[in-house]
Design a protein that fits this description.
Blueprint (H helix, E strand, L loop, with lengths): L36 E2 L16 E4 L7 E2 L9 E3 L2 E3 L7 E3 L6 E8 L14 E5 L3 E5 L24 E2 L8 E8 L2 E2 L5 E3 L2 E6 L2 E8 L22 E2 L7 E9 L21 H5 L3 E5 L6 E7 L2 E5 L6 E5 L4 E4 L4 E7 L5 E8 L2 E7 L2
Parallel strand pairs: 1-10
Antiparallel strand pairs: 2-17, 3-6, 4-5, 5-17, 6-16, 7-11, 7-17, 8-9, 8-16, 11-14, 12-13, 14-15, 18-19, 18-25, 19-20, 20-21, 21-22, 22-23, 23-24, 24-25
Length: 355
C-alpha cells in the first residue's frame, strides 16, 4: 500500500504537476465508495508459460534478478518454485529497468488467513517503483474499495472482485504505459493501466492521476523513462512465482493523419468526369461499384456504407485517401476509361466499366 522511498529507484525530481482535483471524485480509501461485485473467475491452467520474447524476472529458482533497496542481494526467500516476502526485509527491486510493459505475475495469499482489511495478505506490484497494483487477500475480506486486490492503489477499485481463496495461485496480467514528460519536466501523457485478474478484465485502460500513495493523491513528477519493477514487503508472507514481462513498443498516437493523402496532380472537372460511371468487378460475385464527381473530387462506392475519396496521383492512377489502396485505370484511344485494376493488400483484381 505504501510507496517506496524515491531513492530506492534512483529518481531525480525535475518538476511537479498539479493534480486536477476534479479527477478525485472520492477521497482516497473511502469506505462509502461502491464495492466491486464479487464474481468467480473460470479456472486457469497456471503457471502460464511465457512467450518467446519475454524477459524472465523469476523462474522459481533464485533471486538473481532482484535486489534490495540499497543494491544488496534481495532478502526474500526463494524455495519450492516461489519467492516469499520476509517481514522487515524491505521491498525487492528488479535489477533491470523498464518503461512500457506487459507484465505477468502469479501470487498467493498466506494460509491460514490472518488479520483483516489491509492487514491480511498485503503486498503490491509497483510499476516503475511508483504506480502500485495492490496485492491483498480480498476473499471475504472487508476493506476500502481502492485498496483491495487488483486496485490501482488509492485511485481505481477493480471493476469486479475475482479474488481466489488464500493459498490458491492467482494471476495478474498488466499492460502498463508509462507517463511521458517533455524536456522541461512537464507532463505530456499520464500513465495508463489495463489489468486482468485471473483472466478477467478489472482495470480498463485507466488514466493514473499520478504516483499511487497512502492517504493522499500525489502529483506527477518527471522521472526517467526506465525504472525498476518492485514488490512490496508489507509484513505478510505473500508468495510470488512465474514473473515475466514483454517490453512494449513506443506508445504511438492512434489519431489518423493525412499522410500521403494530398493530390499529386490537379485534374480539371472535365477530366474527372471521364471516370464517372458504374463498374463491375470481374469475379464470380460481380459486385457493382460506382464513381461520381463531388465538386472538384471523385468519390467511389465499393458497396460500403459511405463513399471513399479518390486522390489523383496521375491522369490515370488514384489512391484512396485513408487506405493503402489504389486504382489504375485503363484508358481507351478516345481517352475514356474502360475499367481499372484495384490494388489492395498485396492483391489486385480487374474491374470493367459497364456504363
Amino acid at each position: 500500500m505504501k510507496q517506496p522511498a524515491l531513492v530506492a529507484v534512483g529518481i531525480f525530481v525535475l518538476s511537479f504537476q498539479a493534480l486536477p482535483q476534479s479527477l478525485a471524485q472520492w477521497k482516497a480509501h473511502d469506505m462509502n465508495r461502491p464495492r466491486p461485485t464479487i464474481i468467480k473467475a473460470s479456472d486457469q491452467k497456471l503457471p502460464i508459460q511465457p512467450p518467446s520474447d519475454a524477459v524472465i524476472l523469476f523462474d522459481g529458482r533464485d533471486l538473481s534478478q532482484w535486489r534490495s533497496e540499497d543494491g544488496s542481494p534481495a532478502k526474500w526467500v526463494a524455495a519450492n518454485g516461489y519467492m516469499e516476502s520476509v517481514k522487515g526485509s524491505g521491498y525487492v527491486f528488479s535489477r533491470l529497468t523498464f518503461g512500457d510493459v506487459q507484465l505477468h505475475v502469479e501470487w498467493a495469499a498466506p494460509v491460514p488467513a490472518m488479520g483483516k482489511s489491509q492487514g491480511r495478505g498485503n503486498s503490491g506490484v509497483f510499476l516503475m517503483g511508483q504506480y502500485e497494483i495492490q496485492v491483498l487477500d480480498s476473499y471475504e475480506n472487508h476493506t476500502y474499495p481502492d485498496g483491495q486486490a487488483a486496485s490501482v492503489y488509492g485511485q481505481y477499485p477493480p471493476l469486479v472482485n475475482v479474488c481466489r481463496p488464500p493459498g490458491e495461485w492467482q494471476s495478474y496480467d498488466i499492460v502498463f504505459r508509462r507517463p511521458r514528460f517533455d524536456r522541461n519536466g512537464g507532463l505530456l501523457k499520464p500513465a495508463r493501466v489495463t489489468l486482468l485478474h485471473n483472466g478477467v478484465l478489472v482495470q480498463d485502460n485507466v488514466e493514473l492521476w499520478g504516483p499511487t500513495n497512502w492517504l493522499q493523491h500525489s502529483p506527477y513528477f518527471a522521472h526517467p523513462d526506465r525504472l525498476p519493477i518492485s514488490l512490496q514487503d508489507h509484513g505478510n508472507p505473500v508468495r510470488f512465482r512465474n514473473i515475466w514481462l514483454r517490453e512494449l513498443p513506443e506508445w504511438n498516437d492512434p489519431t489518423p493523419t493525412n499522410a500521403k493523402s494530398d493530390p499529386v496532380v490537379v485534374l480539371q472537372n472535365k477530366d474527372l468526369d471521364r471516370f464517372v460511371g458504374k463498374y463491375q468487378r470481374q469475379t464470380s460475385n460481380k459486385e457493382i461499384f460506382s464513381i461520381k464527381r463531388d465538386g472538384t473530387k471523385l468519390r467511389a462506392n465499393f458497396a460500403g456504407p459511405s463513399d471513399i475519396e479518390l486522390v489523383p496521383n496521375s491522369e490515370r492512377e488514384f489512391s484512396l485517401r485513408w487506405t493503402a489502396g489504389k486504382l489504375v485505370f485503363d484508358i481507351a484511344v478516345d481517352g475514356k476509361p474502360t475499367g481499372f485494376t484495384f490494388h489492395l493488400g498485396g492483391e489486385e483484381y480487374l474491374v470493367k466499366r459497364i456504363e
